[in-house]
């Protein structure tokens, strides 16, 4: 390990300050582990967004359903040991009721009964069809069909999205969902289909609302895309000079430029973890209606459940939007890989494909000609499904059916929780940890109605200016690299955080995940940051005394 005062240290920090924060993380972890071993400490890695809680009821129901599903298979055909048939549809509902009565005290059975009742009562599903879809899905004995999403499960997941993302509405009409392997898969599939359908071409201009999750910054620079990028910067500030993480009208007005083909947005943002204000959404809506009606918007709302009364931008402009959501953060299921892509039936993507020049349409139609005799009629969301398997393997597309079943159980858990008990628990965890972090920093937490508190982004220069003035801020910039504090936290306290600059946030900011460590760890992290900040101040004072 290179010592902090070694001549090569700043060169090393300069190099690591220019790479992805998730690549820098691996180096910081190695330093933190070395220090933890040497001083018998526990490493605290607040660099990742994986929550350290899980939702239990939907998981219990999943395993209870699995046991019933096995019984359903065995009744069809059973060869001991280890071979059974596939479940039957007819009579499955009555057999489930008998099974539930017999296993009344099995964990998850009560919730599973509520799940069945929800589908039957809310959507008038035929009981046998609903039970069979869940049973056959959890067994995983068939390819997903339809490949985009199982039909009954799509209905209940859409209900959940309308409740949590779309303000209780149905997006001004019908929308279709594609179940995918988390939001990261959604990103990849969407980028690829926009290119495949020539809605975006290499060299086109796109806009990105920053700070933002790093793949949205890195993917556009890949050789097959090579987009020109305009950044819409959350440069708003509060009266005390701190970041509000909101977008001034002057930034949103950049989107009047019709050379911008697409806008990418994470809302609430990552890493500031703050939702876009309604007045900003209204400004965006006006620009689309009056200046840029064909702007394509990719809207990632993964952290929405942690903000009070959240309303997705897609709610107000469904025609222009592709929605992305993942269940991973809310329900603690990053390992399950459960995400969705949402496209409204009346959308600009289908319109733009139809309006392409004949030569381009012919090329695109040839791409999908093996799927149907009328490839021009394939909707954009179904093109995303086909493109996810390079079109030729479209018949094997789709999220695995057991994953879709677990997704449905999570969705219905949210729908049945009328008192928002689970949601309030997850919010309180994040907010309590933020309060403990700021207690360690010896700072007050300022209430922000749009704050998800899933992450927080702490800007050292803002702190420096508020506590010691501009001269001290200049001293920091002239004598240290922005990632210096990250290296020191790893080396001295076995704490791993990420650089906010890597998310195209302020260069001297650091991202702290509030979701993945125990509460008391955040008090410790705050104190460690405060210790280093005071050390910087002491060094600055010593230089002043010398002069």
Characterization of the model:
The chain is α/β, with parallel strands linked by helices and 547 residues long. The chain contains 21 helices and 14 strands. It has helices spanning 9-16, 21-39, 57-76, 92-102, 109-123, 127-139, 151-164, 182-196, 214-218, 249-252, 278-290, 328-331, 348-354, 358-367, 380-387, 401-416, 421-441, 460-468, 470-479, 484-493, 519-546, and strands at residues 44-45, 78-79, 83-84, 175-180, 205-210, 228-233, 260-266, 296-300, 321-326, 339-344, 455-459, 495-496, 498-499, 509-513. The strands form 4 sheets. A 7-stranded mixed β-sheet has the order 4-10-9-8-7-5-6, sandwiched between helices. Strands 11-14-13 form a 3-stranded antiparallel β-sheet. A two-stranded parallel ribbon has the order 1-12. The protein is globular and about 90 Å long. The model has no long low-confidence stretch (mean pLDDT 93).
Identify the notable features of this structure and list them briefly:
547 residues; alpha/beta; seven-stranded mixed beta sheet; three-stranded antiparallel beta sheet; 21 helices; 14 strands; globular
Quick summary:
The protein is an alpha/beta fold. The chain has helices at about 10-15, 20-40, 55-75, 90-100, 110-125, 125-140, 150-165, 180-195, 215-220, 250, 280-290, 330, 350-355, 360-365, 380-385, 400-415, 420-440, 460-470, 470-480, 485-495, 520-545, and strands spanning about 45, 80, 85, 175-180, 205-210, 230-235, 260-265, 295-300, 320-325, 340-345, 455-460, 495, 500, 510-515. Helix content is about 50%, strand content about 10%.
């Amino acid at each position: 390990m290179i010592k902090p005062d070694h001549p090569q240290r700043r060169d090393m920090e300069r190099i690591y300050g220019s790479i992805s924060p998730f690549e820098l993380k691996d180096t910081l972890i190695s330093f933190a582990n070395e220090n933890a071993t040497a001083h018998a400490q526990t490493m605290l890695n607040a660099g990742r967004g994986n929550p350290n809680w899980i939702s239990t009821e939907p998981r219990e129901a999943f395993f209870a359903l699995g046991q019933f599903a096995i019984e359903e298979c065995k009744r069809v055909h059973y060869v001991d040991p280890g071979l059974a048939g596939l479940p039957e549809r007819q009579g499955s509902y009555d057999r489930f009721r008998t099974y539930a009565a017999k296993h009344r005290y099995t964990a998850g059975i009560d919730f599973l009964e509520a799940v069945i009742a929800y589908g039957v009562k809310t959507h008038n599903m035929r009981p046998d069809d609903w039970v069979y879809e869940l049973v056959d899905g959890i067994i995983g004995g068939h390819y997903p069909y339809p490949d985009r999403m199982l039909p009954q499960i799509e209905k209940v997941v859409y209900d959940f999205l309308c409740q949590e993302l779309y303000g209780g509405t149905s997006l001004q009409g019908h929308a279709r969902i594609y179940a995918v392997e988390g939001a990261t898969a959604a990103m990849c599939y969407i980028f690829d289909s926009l290119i495949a359908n020539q809605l975006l071409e290499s060299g086109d201009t796109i806009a990105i609302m920053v700070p933002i999750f790093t793949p949205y910054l890195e993917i556009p620079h890949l050789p097959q895309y090579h987009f020109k990028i305009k950044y819409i910067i959350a440069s708003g500030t509060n009266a005390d000079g701190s970041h509000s993480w909101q977008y001034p009208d002057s930034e949103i007005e950049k989107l009047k430029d019709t050379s911008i083909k697409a806008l990418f947005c994470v809302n609430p943002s990552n890493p500031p973890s703050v939702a876009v204000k309604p007045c900003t959404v209204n400004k965006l809506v006006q620009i689309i209606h009056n200046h840029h009606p064909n702007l394509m918007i990719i809207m990632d709302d993964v952290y929405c459940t942690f903000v009070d009364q959240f309303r997705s931008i897609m709610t107000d402009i469904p025609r222009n939007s592709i929605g992305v959501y993942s269940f991973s953060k809310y329900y603690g299921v990053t390992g399950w890989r459960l995400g969705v892509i949402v496209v409204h039936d009346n959308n600009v993507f289908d319109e733009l494909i139809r309006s392409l020049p004949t030569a381009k349409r012919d090329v695109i139609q040839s791409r999908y000609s093996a799927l149907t005799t009328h490839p021009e009629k394939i909707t954009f969301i179904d093109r995303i499904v086909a493109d996810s398997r390079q079109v030729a393997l479209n018949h094997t597309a789709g999220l695995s059916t057991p994953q879709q079943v677990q997704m449905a159980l999570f969705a219905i858990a949210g729908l049945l929780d009328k008192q928002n008990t689970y949601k309030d628990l997850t919010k309180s965890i994040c907010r309590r940890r933020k309060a403990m972090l700021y207690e360690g920093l010896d700072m007050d937490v300022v209430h922000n109605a749009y704050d998800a508190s899933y992450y927080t982004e702490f800007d050292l220069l803002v702190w420096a200016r508020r506590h010691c003035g501009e001269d001290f801020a200049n001293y920091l910039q002239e004598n240290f690299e922005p990632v210096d504090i990250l290296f020191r936290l790893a080396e001295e306290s076995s704490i791993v955080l990420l650089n906010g600059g890597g998310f195209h946030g302020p260069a001297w900011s650091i991202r702290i995940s509030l979701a993945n460590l125990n509460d008391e760890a955040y008090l410790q992290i705050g104190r460690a940051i405060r210790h280093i900040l005071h050390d910087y101040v002491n060094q600055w004072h010593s230089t002043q005394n010398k002069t």
